[in-house]
Amino acid sequence: MGMTAIEIYKLLPKTNCGKCGVPTCLAFAMKLANKQAELSACPDVSDDVKTQLEESSAPPIRLVTVGTGDNKIEMGNETELFRHEKTFYHPTAYSLIVEDTTSPEELEAKVKEASEVEFERVGQILKMGMLAIKASSGDPAKFTETVKTVTGKTSLPLILISDKPEVMEEGLKIASSGKPLIHAATKDNWQAMAELAKKYECPIVAFEEGGLDELAELTQNIKKAGVEDIMLDFGKKSLGETMRLLTIIRRLSAKKNFRPLGYPVILSLEGDPEKEALAAAVFTMKYSAALMLNDISKWKMFPLFTLRQNIYTDPQIPIQVKPELYEINNPDENSPLLFTTNFSLTYFTVAGDIENSKIPSYLQVIDTEGLSVMTAFAAGKLTPEMVAEALEKSGAKDKIKHNKIIIPGMVARMSAKLNEKSGREVLVGPRESSGLPKYLKGLSEGS
Amino acid sequence: MPVQIPKEKWTGKIREVKFGGTQEEGGTRSSSITLGGVSTLPFLYFEGDMPRKTVIAMEVLDVVREDYPALAREPFNDVLESPSSWAKTCVEKYGAEAICLKLEGTNPEEEDKSPDQAVEIVKEVLSAVSVPLLIYGCGNDEKDSKVMQVVSDATKGERCLLGLAEEERYKSISVATMANDHAIVAFSNLDINLAKQLNILLTDFGIKPENIVMDPLQAGLGYGLEYSYSVIERIRLAALMGDQMLQMPILCDTSISWKAREAHQPNEAYGDEKIRGPYWEATTGLSAITAGADMLIMRHPSAVKMVREAVEELATSGGGE
């Protein structure tokens, strides 16, 4: 949401000196608006104008990074209200909360749990985002000790939670090299907290429960104090109110370019495990950049990660499965051989229907760049040559004794060519995958 | 620093569709259900109306096959053989607001129950519970056209939601719907254009728009949920922007989420399936609601409880007003 060429032009010196390489200031303004030129090419523009223009070209929701190296977490930089308009970029970072009042044994167990949560789903590794340490005791020594223990046991980026600057600083002394997130600056402590954020070069959360007016005020103050990497937390509210506030903040920032709330939102859910699970699901869909949880049981995290994976999938890039020869229901060398495409939905449907048939089978998946059978066929991305080649590569010949292959009914017209290219006898399967159980049963009874 | 709440000015509104015939209407339902009337995105009370909370119906099958997951059978183990007792359990024990009776046993390639048998089951369910009914055929066009006609006749006045009408097969079920003033479920396959096209076909055929509810196909969590999510959001946005042929209420069937083995099969790596399974279905339901669904058809009582809890809390005030 940058400025228009005319808006930029008004801020330029209007001397038409040509030193920037473009004959007129207006032409230069147009290039700037289209991001084809750099403002630094103008020698006469004032520092004030520079700041103004830089801000206008910044993303509507600031990108905030917590942590360093491979485990760092990026949040923000979202541009859309609806994923179908483009995509959502930075998946919600789920983070476990531990307290400095927790017993050492339990602390160790929780940190281990958070560090080890890991699922693999459709080729993606799904892991926790950050680990939050809450200074519940209010005792700087205790907090120091806890932060020390935790940093030694996990590589997850940290969130340090305390509203007391003197306690926060103790934590930062130990953990600042890992670029933790400071939680939080409030209307009462923001000067001191902002100083810490600058001194230790860490991002900071602006926490305000009193409403968006006050929250915007707070971020402005923090920013004026010289801190740029800010996140928002508006406190614990009902599910409905939270969803509405998240929506309002996303609309204001992404669509209205309202800078004071142009930051990613982090929220603490902290309810009973089931309530947390429901809230986390809703706020994963509706606009939360990070969520802090009390409980990260696997029954909760696996579905939640799956939801996040679904919602944050780029609508332009379909999820694909690996193009391999899949074994379903423990096939042997006499089991039927079918093929389909690597579009995940197509594959899951076909594999599911084969599974339901209970007939042991081989399913060769063809790399069609994530297109479904008919679309791939129409686009020339599913050809007899490709099927033959895939079978060759996957070693179907060595695993399967017979010389037959079942073709999806929709593309029956490439049967003859497939027979020629693969040397296999081509059997025409059903047009819809749902017909597979019946078809496969019939086939096995017939033989 | 005063913050201006950004409100969208929607011109469209979701049509109200009423189902469930009470005594005055010639039926036997204790109350009817009205869907729709919505003039904003889900739960954004600060810019429009959402007069009622999401309706939750529960599914009842006339035949339970092998692939019906053990975990989903558990709450109904004593009643699975009897659709009427099953329906009664859903309503009395788990608070189902409506029952979706799926007559899968009429499938000629499976149990092949006769139209008369189907009517018998429908009548039993009608007398066992007093909530409104959705009645679905087995999906075999030829058989459904016979079954749904007699079901329609036998339920005259009850104002059921009959399903499913699809682009390739909508005529016989439309005739059955219109014959006795029922309402119809228009099913399309994850495509906003198909959804609209089917609504046009149905209204051209003579079904009144206020008798149509859309089912744009809910995919389960992990198996294409994002497609459903975006199609529902797009349908709802188009409706609010004024597209009259998409202003029908939306219903989503979350029982599909039980097709995913990772949702409910024991697996230590994925945690306790007794709560994972229901949460998997609840998450599927929450995504439908968040995108714009007005009614859900659900399978597991614990999932129903979770979604209901979330809906109650989503419907509380505060935030933007």
Which segments of chain A are poorly predicted (pLDDT under 50) over 5 or more consecutive residues?
none
Oligomeric state of this protein: heterodimer
Number of helices of chain B: 10
Which fold does the CATH topology of the largest domain in chain A refer to? Answer: TIM Barrel
Strand order of the largest sheet of chain A: 10-9-8-7-6-3-12-11
Coarse structural class of chain A = alpha/beta
- What is Rg of chain B? 19 Å
Task: Calculate the mean pLDDT score of chain B and round it.
Answer: 96
The SSE order of chain B reads: EEEHHEHEHEHEHEHEHHEH
CATH class of chain B, named: Alpha Beta
User: Could you say which structural class the secondary elements and strand pairing of chain B correspond to?
Assistant: alpha/beta
Apparent shape of chain B: globular
Give the DSSP E fraction of chain B (strand runs of 2 or more residues).
5-15%
Distance between the termini of chain A: 66 Å
Describe it:
The complex is a heterodimer of chains A (447) and B (321). Chain A folds into three domains: 5-57, 3-methyladenine DNA Glycosylase II, Chain A, domain 3; 64-311, Dihydropteroate synthase-like (TIM Barrel, Alpha-Beta Barrel); 325-446, Rossmann fold. Helices cover 42% and strands 16% of the residues of chain A. Chain A contains 17 helices and 17 strands. In chain A, the strands form five sheets. In chain A, strands 10-9-8-7-6-3-12-11 form an eight-stranded parallel β-sheet, covered by helices on one side. A three-stranded mixed β-sheet of chain A has the order 13-15-14, with helices on both faces. Chain A has a two-stranded antiparallel ribbon with strand order 1-2. Chain B has 321 residues and is α/β, with parallel strands linked by helices. In chain B, the strands form two sheets. In chain B, strands 8-7-6-5-4-3-10-9 form an eight-stranded parallel β-sheet. In chain B, 54% of the residues are buried. The model of chain B has no long low-confidence stretch (mean pLDDT 96). At the A-B interface, α8, α9, α10, α11 and α12 of A face α7, α9 and α10 of B.
